[in-house]
Amino acid sequence: MPTPPLAGGTAGPTHLRPLLDTVLTALHDGATRRNGPLPAGGPDTVTHHTRTTTGPVLPDHGTGPHHALRTLVTALTEGAADPAHPHCAAHLHTPPLALAAAADLAASALNPSMDSWDQAPAASALEADLTRTLATEIYPHTPHPDAVITTGGTEANQLALLLARERHGPLQTICAANAHHSITRATWLLGLPRPVVIPAPRGVMDPTALHDALTTLTGPLLVTATAGTTDTGRIDPLDHIADLTTTHGADLHIDAAYGGPLLLSPTHRHLLTGLHRAHTVTLDLHKLGWQPASAGILAVPDHHHLTPLHHHAPYLNADDDTEAGLPDLLGRSLRTTRRPDALKIAVTLQALGRDGLADLIDRTLTTAHHLADLIDQHPHLQLYARPTISTVLFRPTGTDDTHVATIRRTLLDQGHAVLGRAHADGRLWLKATLLNPHTTPEDHHRLLTLVTHTATRTRTTPAPAPRPAAPPAPRTPAPHTTTEGSNPR
């Protein structure tokens, strides 16, 4: 077998072009075979079918690039939960923009490693410009805001707690019951006390309970607020919380992984009033930013706040190199080797501009309010509350939590819809997290029809037993036909 060609250099694009054609054909064929938001049959069926159609991962003799790409990409696509399908709406799992995915291909082909300048000369300059630009959106009134790129909200939150620990030593974290699980996990990883958890009635932090905690607790304190919870999408009263932390001398971190991009929408940025008062802010653009994972950000009001991240490794940032003017990149992350995720984000920002990004955000939030209207008007469905961002909780009327869970799993098993689940007000709800700006009113009607029909069938019929591990038989398409141009797959 000849030596396989490389993706880089002047010959790289020539070698990539026919391979990309194979990949794009496989993506199309796999989506056509799936014919829905996810494969039918549940875990055992999907695992068996994937293994039987892909063959051994490491054969004795290679199958060749086109066969391997065609086989595995088709199988992965056929067995995917496709966030571009309007009925795949369970999680903060966005359908990435085509232009961002294309930029990610370039990043993979060039393969800069963002741990030393001599591995990423232009990429390091682009990342510095991008992080300053995003930090300035969050902290418009400080002279030297900055940010680092992370793998997502979890890493950004962990870095925020690390920086707070480095400022104050062992400190006590206070969060509300609506906080992301990564806050508690970060305290464990950093050897900090478990967070003091205060109530979150109506899904947001209770300022009175926060005042009591700040008054009672001693020592350095860090309050973590949330702008966009994973369960309901609610946003804590950020300005009020900032007032309390200022009065009591506590630090403030705001996890705006979900809601942070609302800053780019003139219509919705008021929901984030007070965000700039935080010592650190988490932002995640592979949620309401339509980026391929990963695309997380941790922003600070002054670049000196990132100094504790500095690390010295002579083979990457020797002192004399730094003194000679080579940028020191190790202090930009706790990771060493890392991808140039700044490229896809920068391409998206430049291609769409402020008005294009605002339009995407506004369209997406409008779809959530439309779905809420349909649920509110439906005689057999109950709406939890009006959406704050793009998360809509609902459940069939006259049912219990066990039945709600059965409805969700039945839709998954049949391959008809991917809905999440969330507890609120002591009950279990179906959760639709809408992140697809191409979703249409017709898509919403079909989704609700699937839910109500499934609720009726499962109310009198026991939940289906696990299917045997066998290849899936051809199935009748789900009652969904995408409008031309409304939902690229």
UniProtKB/TrEMBL annotation:
UniProt biased composition (Pro residues): 463-477
PANTHER family, per database record: CYSTEINE SULFINIC ACID DECARBOXYLASE (PTHR45677:SF8), GLUTAMATE DECARBOXYLASE-RELATED (PTHR45677)
Protein's UniProt name: Aspartate aminotransferase family protein
Region annotated Disordered, chain positions: 30-65, 454-489
Source organism per UniProt: Streptomyces nitrosporeus
UniProt-listed Pfam families: Pyridoxal_deC
Co-factor requirement: pyridoxal 5'-phosphate
Family, similarity comment: Belongs to the group II decarboxylase family.
GO molecular function: aromatic-L-amino-acid decarboxylase activity; pyridoxal phosphate binding; transaminase activity
Record's keyword terms, sorted: Aminotransferase, Decarboxylase, Lyase, Pyridoxal phosphate, Transferase
Residues bearing PTM N6-(pyridoxal phosphate)lysine: 287
Assigned GO CC terms: cytoplasm
Biological process annotations from GO: carboxylic acid metabolic process
Lineage, top ranks: Bacteria, Bacillati, Actinomycetota, Actinomycetes, Kitasatosporales
